Amino acid sequence: MPETRLTRDRIEALLTRMATTKVVVVGDAMLDVYLVGEVDRVSPEAPVPVVTVHASRHGLGGAANVAANVAALGADCRLVAVVGEDQRGASVRAELDDLKLNSSFLVTDSGRPTTSKTRVVARGQQMLRIDEEIEDPISAKVMEKLGRSLERALEDADALLIEDYNKGTLVPQVIERGMTIAKKRSVPVVVDPKFKNFFAYRGATVFKPNRRELELAMGAALDLAHPDALPDALGKLAVDNLLLTLGGEGMMLVTKDQEVTRIPTMAREVFDVSGAGDTVTAWVGTALAAGASVREAAHIANFAAGIEVGKAGVATVSSAEVLAVHEAYYDQLGKLRREGLL
Questions:
Q1: Within-domain flag for 329
Q2: For 105, 305, 311, 339, which has the most beta carbons within 10 A of its beta carbon?
Q3: From CA 232, how far away is CA 236, in angstroms rounded?
Q4: Active-site annotation holder among 28, 32, 164, 278
């Protein structure tokens, strides 16, 4: 199918509408902690570098980072997630408040810690990451509270984004509750899956795994050059559209009409891939909420991801930044076609 060019007028209109949407994000929220310092010696206790920490900062991770990306577009974002009754849970709420994000849909669970990832960075390099988490499913009591919060968030929402990191928030009952409400209200659903619940999203509007996740679920390597490989996967998943992320190779979109579209990466320089998948989820979901087609949403999200990986750490992307690279995409596409690479 010939590509329909996403004109500047069209993308500007969509970006304007995206800022007026109401988007619900449900899933595993995390706190990212960065300890930044210098290394000038090796420990006498073990052959490991000693990092002298000079600064520390917090950021939102997982589903909370998706919410931050949605909020950066000006949309009304409701984050439905679980945090612990601890200092890091308080930090998540504080980060949300700083971003003018409503934290009233969060559920506090005194029986588990807030999921956190601490990265030790020196000379621009990540030296170590420490994960503090419990991956057990949330309790029945917390599940019911989360379900009620999800229902309240979806009452007048324009899209539902499901962000699964296998940290126990997205139990089958929560997934089913969200999907049922979204279907009843004809709200688009975008899913960023993990293996445990991979086949629990029948009827999702956009299902967005990476290649490794899809191959693991399908039990075989994917021959992306074979014309039937991705349409077959789409059928087995029973979702409307499959958006496969391929890292430095961009993305591939398979729509319900079985058309396969290759979307080359927009990244000019990759500084840090942290959070790129969250950016894609946020932008696809918010674009669909604004009335974009699935192809338009995927292309806009590709612009945003190309910008995000050029930034240090987990970062958000603005509408102005996406507009700035809009024309560059088509210049690059034309060059790749002339070189026979597309």
A1: yes
A2: 305
A3: 6
A4: 278
Please tell me the number of Cα atoms within 13 Å of 292 on its side-chain side. Answer: 31
Residue range of the domain that includes 213:
8-38+49-338
- Active site annotation includes 278: yes
Distances (CA, A) of 282 to 44, 192, 278: 46, 10, 6
Give per-residue pLDDT as tens, 50-74. 999 999 999 999 999 999 999 999 9
Higher pLDDT, 245 or 206: 206
> What is the domain-level CATH number for residue 132?
3.40.1190.20
287 assigned to some structural domain: yes
C-alpha 165/C-alpha 192 separation (Å) is: 9
Whole-number pLDDT of residue 342? 60
Query: Is the pTM here over 0.70, yes or no?
Result: yes
Residue 109 lies in a domain: yes
Give the integer Cα–Cα distance in Å for 3 and 142: 46
Amino acid occupying residue 317: V
- The answer to the question of residue 255 being in a domain is yes
Number of domains in the chain: 1
